[in-house]
Each structure stands twice: as structure tokens, then as C-alpha cells.
Amino acid sequence: MKVVNVIWMCVVICFGGVISCFAQQGTKNQVLLERIARIYAIIPQDLKADELLEKIDEVDKQVNLLIDSISNQELKSKAQLLRFNGLLWSMKQTDEVIRKDLEKRIHGLDLDSPELELLSDVEVTNLLNGYFQVFMPDASAVERATYVLYNIGSEKVRNSYVPFVLISALKKNGYTSDVEGLMEDIELCSKTEATIQKAKELKNSYYPVREGAVAPDFEMEDEYGNRVKLSDFRGKIVFIDVWATWCDGCVKGLPAFIALRDQYKDRDDIVFLTISDDGIESKSHWLKFLKERKYSGKIPHLIANNAKDHFVKDYCITGIPRYILVNREGKIVNAWHIAANHEFFSWMFEMELKGLAGE
């Protein structure tokens, strides 16, 4: 019995040692992967072509040594992909010499390889964007996502990249013709029902506030306690600034927006109004802010009641500031308009007003 116990103890000790060994090896490999992922970031971006190539040589030798130190073949493959990613982002200059050198260094990178499934969603997105910025620099984000759908077979890779691009495009510009095309391509190419369903849900949310759609009506309290509706201004062009006192970007853009009233003082067919997303519970703070900045009374100022209003949901407000232009018929001209302090605002706004003059 004692002999059996001794043998069992030896087995436990040895097995525990093996587990410990595997654990240590796994930790070592993970440390090496993390080091490879960040080592290219130390390369300065303002180097001349010859200096950059010299630095790349130095770093790339270190990385190849690190890759050789990884024992697991699958992790070696992942490390190589991380190396490719580092090279793409550190050699993104337009210099033709650098471009040719990069092509040699990333020889073997196949975006349609199943090995990309070894990467996390963030790593996949970084690698693809790194590749696109070098080899497809003029392609928009939506065009890149379309390329992925039609040229990469892995559903995991597609699902890591395409939905992210779709959501980002919608948040940035709303439901455009490009986005509509991407949604159609998702339905045609995707084999993942959850991805197809998510695209349909996003369409249901964003399609109602597309260009040309009737702007959802809303009713809110103004700074004097009066109830104001969007439909009250039917027959006039309405330009809306959605903001909040806690949003630095909003506060910086507010003076330029309010100044539009003076700039267009002879146009009684245009209404400039603000909608605060501070929430009705912060009404006193909002009113104090308007008075202290001397904005009170200059243009209509409304405040959303998020507990009762559907404004944020109806207009897909996922970030502020947001600027919304509505025509005389109450239809959306642009629900993702550029800010009044944008360098191209004056030109764009004048072009829009000329277009609306014939309605």
C-alpha cells in the first residue's frame, strides 16, 4: 500500500510539473506575441526613406528572432501575421522604394488564408486596414468592407471586419447609397444569420432618417417653458444643433452655430435651433449655462426629455454634436451635417440653400 502511495505521489508531482511547464511555455509565448505586436510602434514616423529602412531592418531582425523562439507552430503563424501588421503600419509612407521593400517583407501574406482566424477581431481589423491603406489607399471604408465580403472566404474574418465598418459608416454619415449597397452585399455574401439580421436591424433604425425622408416630429420644452414642435416650423428651413453642456466639442462649436442667425438675419425662412441632450433633470444647469454665455434668447433653445421623448432613438443620436438640416416640407436634407465651424461649412451650406430655393 505504501508503494502504491509513493508511486501515486510521483505521478502527481510529475504531472503537476508537466502542467507547470506547459503553463510557463504558454506564458512565454504570450509575452513574445505581445512584444511582437508592439515592437514596431517604437519606429519614428518622421524618418527619411533610407533611415526608415535601416530601422526596419533592425527591428525586423529582432522580431524574427522572437518568432523563432516560439515553440507552438500555430502561434508562430499568428506571430508572423502580427509582424506583417507591424510592417504595414510602420512602412505606410508613399515612397516607392519603401513600398517595394514592404512588398518583399510581407511576401506570403494572404488575406484569404484561414490563418487570419488566429487573430482577435481587433487584430484582424488592424491588419486589414493596414493592408488597405498601403495597397488600396483610395478605397473608402465601405469599399474595403465590400472587398472583404467578395475576396475573403472566412466567415470569422468577415464578421470581425464588415459589421464594424457598417456600424461606423452609419454613425458617421447615416444611411447613404454606399451603406445601402454594403447591406445588400452582406445579405448576398454572408453565411452568418446573426450578421444578416444585425444589418436588417440597423437598416430599420437608420432608413427612416435618410436623405429625403420625412423628419420625425418631436415636441420639447424651450428655455421659457413653452412646448415646441418641429412641425411648428413647417414652411421654413430648419437647421438643428444637438449638443450638451458636458460635451467640449459641442460647446466649442456652439458660438459659430448661434452666429448663423446674425449671418442670415435677412432670411426669415430659416430657423436655427439647438436641442440639448443634457436631460430635463439638468434643466437648471442648462439654463444657467445659456445665460452665463449670453446665448439665451438669441435662437430657440430646446431641451430633450429622454425619459419621454423618442428624439435620440428616432434620429439615431449615437454621438454629439450632431447637426440636422430639414427643408420647408419637413423632409431631411442631411441628418449628419458638418458643423458650422467646419472649414467647408459656408460653401456647403450656401450650395444647399441654393438647391432648396427651387423647392
Can you give a write-up of this model?
With 359 residues, the protein is an alpha/beta fold. The chain folds into two domains: 47-208, no CATH class; 219-357, 3-Layer(aba) Sandwich (Glutaredoxin), CATH 3.40.30.10. It has helices at 2-39, 49-68, 73-90, 96-105, 121-135, 141-151, 155-173, 177-189, 193-206, 248-263, 283-292, 311-314, 345-357, and strands at 219-222, 227-229, 237-243, 270-276, 301-303, 322-326, 332-334. Strands 2-1-5-4-3-6-7 form a seven-stranded mixed sheet, with helices on one face. Helix 1 (2-39) packs antiparallel against helix 2 and helix 6 runs parallel beside helix 8. The protein starts with a helix and ends with a helix. Residues 1-23 have low confidence and may be disordered.
- Uncertain regions spanning at least 5 consecutive residues: 1-23
Radius of gyration, Cα only, in angstroms? Answer: 28 Å
Please give the alpha-carbon distance between the first and last residues: 99 Å
Q: In percent, how much strand structure appears in the residues?
A: 5-15%
Number of helices: 13
User: Tell me about the biggest sheet?
Assistant: 7 strands, mixed
SSE order = HHHHHHHHHEEEHEHEHEEH
The total number of structural domains is 2
